[in-house]
Amino acid sequence: YHYKVGPRLHDIGHQIFPEVDELSNIVDSPMYMLYPFVGVLFLSTIIPHEGVTKPYLVNIILRFGCVFAIGHTLRAATYLATSVPGSANHCLDAEEVERNRPTFA
Length: 105
Hints:
The protein is an all-alpha fold. It has helices at 12-16, 29-46, 57-81, 94-99.
């Protein structure tokens, strides 16, 4: 077990951006704007138009699957590349860490 208690990592995001409590009333606004937009897009694929062929359900599912897979791949890459800030003060007690350090017999 090689962990040594050291200084915390600095979280640049919390240093640059204000706390969410100040913006709590507008944090959900983008999501509420996205719902009608997605609904209109979905309805535009169902309603027939003159001279425009209807999209086939298989093509819609394939494109959705491709975008879904690409999104999860990029999400995994960004998740693995994220550095976690240091733990709270009560978690940094060096004596506690040393006392609970596993020993090998």
